[in-house]
């Protein structure tokens, strides 16, 4: 790794965020634990990815900010060749162990996406980066690296939280302080990203918008996709031009 890459890796990481998720690592695969919302939302976002990718079987996919491997494993189970990267080594240990127990093959690596993309330019059919951009100091750098890692014609998927009063009420006040869905301090509202801000980043990275959906919660139905309500959680897919 060059000194320049080392500096990039050190700059675009929040050590408090890494410590936060490392402390919870052992509970990644508890469907009733701190990551319960991710367990509930995972089938919905997996369906969105699978639909836009026209199936996952045989696809080479990079999962950025993979954490304990919820999405990575699910995509591998669909026949994808998955590389999952994260900077929280404790989470990766849990991911590797669970994959071993589940007999699912995923290549987990502790590396920053900027560094990985520099060594794997245009290698992946698709790149996923879900619920991660709001946890880093420089999300534009992540977006740029994801665009570099995907093949021309390939797809990049991002999901994050919008920044407005409603997202503060539901994403922080309700989810963290009233309902206790996620631990207090999981999110910082000032780091939430408006779709217009994300699309400025993706435009600069040379990606073209394909679709955007909200990820909304119904008390009776659970999480569902919405083509109109992107006020809180949202997921988007973009494509790298062929030329």
Write the layout of secondary structure elements.
Blueprint: H1 3-11, H2 15-23, H3 36-52, E1 60-64, H4 70-77, E2 81-86, H5 89-102, E3 106-110, H6 113-119, E4 124-130, H7 139-149, E5 150-161, H8 165-178, H9 195-204, E6 208-218, E7 222-226, E8 233-239
Parallel strand pairs: 1-2, 1-4, 2-3, 4-5
Antiparallel strand pairs: 5-8, 6-7, 6-8
Walk me through what this model shows:
The structure is a single chain. The chain has 243 residues and is an alpha/beta fold. Helix content is 41%, strand content 24%. Strands 3-2-1-4-5-8-6-7 form an eight-stranded mixed β-sheet. Strand 2, helix 5 and strand 3 form a beta-alpha-beta unit.
The CATH class: Alpha Beta
CATH architecture: 3-Layer(aba) Sandwich
Q: Low-confidence spans: pLDDT under 50, at least 5 residues?
A: 1-10
SS class: alpha/beta
Please tally the β strands and state the result.
Answer: 8
How many domains? The number is 1
Order of helices and strands: HHHEHEHEHEHEHHEEE
Any idea of the CATH topology?
Answer: Rossmann fold
CATH superfamily: Vaccinia Virus protein VP39
- Overall spatial form: globular
Put simply, the count of helices is: 9
- State the end-to-end CA separation: 29 Å
Rg calculated over all Cα atoms: 17 Å
Q: Which percent range describes the beta-strand content?
A: 15-25%
The spatial strand order of the largest sheet comes to 3-2-1-4-5-8-6-7
* Mean model confidence by pLDDT: 87
Overall helicity: 40-55%
The largest sheet, given as strand count, sense and whether it forms a barrel, is:
8 strands, mixed
